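Handout, page 2. Input:
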Amino acid sequence: MDNYTITQLREKLLSKEISVTDAVKYYLKRISSLDKEINSYITVCTESALEKAKELDRNFDKVKESKLFGIPIAVKDVFSTKDIPTTCASHILDSYTPVYNATVIERILKENAIILGKTNLDEFCHGSSTITSYYGATRNPINKEYLPGGSSGGSSAATALDLCTTSLGTETAGSIRLPASWCGVVGLKPTYGRVPRYGVLAMGSSLDCPGPITKDVKDSAYMLGIIAGHDTNDFTSSKEPVHDYLSKLDIKGVKGMKLAIPKEYLEMDIEKGVRDNFAQMVKILKELGATVEEIPIMNPKFAMAVYTLTCRSEVSSNLARYDGTRYGLSKDTDGNIQEFYKAVRGEGFGKEAKRRIMTGTFSLSAGYADEYFKKAEKVRKLIKEDLENILKTYDAIISPTTPSIALKDKDADNPLFGEMADILAEGSSEAGLPGLSIPSGLSECMPTGIQFIGRYFDEQSILNLGYSVESTLKAGV
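Output:
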């Protein structure tokens, strides 16, 4: 096996060239030998994965038509998984094991995917580095001196190092696209409401979006078709019809498209290698028949400020339920009362979680909500209207995914590190728009990314754009 995509491995499994059991053993062996260096997994489901693999091999003729037959998948440890610990990378959820599956998990299991394990993240998704995890930092698989990005850093790192065929992540404002860019893989953040949030432990309820992290655009299209769709358990999920995104991928679909580059994005402090690679991607898009124009947009620093206030306010509300009595280490099994107190908020949460809870509580408090939270929501509405107006004229917005290549640990000391790293993605997330990041080349031997931001529920257009550029790069044109 050699870094197979879903479509490649599926072909091998259906032809019986590779058994499901052999595929799972391959990944478990790689995790055992390589993950100690990058720490992308929190939990590895060795026994259950092998048991499921043997069951699928035994029942090959009955289940071979399922869309994810035997595909080994890694899942960000923020999705509720029945009988598998779900920690959100926090000490406060040390011993929490859900009794139900998130809707997205139910959908992949229905198609006979195999969950290899739960991947590392910034605690409760609070960050863009994957170093705030209680279970230790994840390293970038390209160069372990660098960060993988976050908060879906474990999922991106595992996918990039071939410790799974594909993975699931979540994005609040860049948490899929940023680590995908820094690890050199493909990350798709769907339209808000396109993929159900039920069973995803909430960070920012008006922002959170589950999505796939894959090795190529075809796999992103395939996964979206499986996990998208209305869910009666999630009142924010959309009833918009789900398409067969894979079958509609069109390498010639770029021709005639009008694409916008926000000039304010290019005026940011963008690293030279990132800028040069983006310019090369623009050249390819023009050669494929797209019209590309620079346009004005609201200063992205407004989006960063809005995210800082809105998300932290929602965090303070969502994390109120973790009080040490209902989840995780709430039972004193050893007769030692100190074990109970380890789970309560004072010691159960890390520094970043505490910082965000305190900031959000302040912005929502009496006398300050009008000055901070409500004002931020008004600006958010302006950002949304600005992007919607642009997309009335243009088919998509394009830009570098992030201003730099992967950074190092010292860079994450700034409390606003994540907001600055995600500044080119935050506005589109606040508006609920879909975004796709694909690799755009290397700078200083580290990956860079280009992102495509589309209209609501028009994931197909940005997938076509990404697929066309990706195919051109693979062809060496």
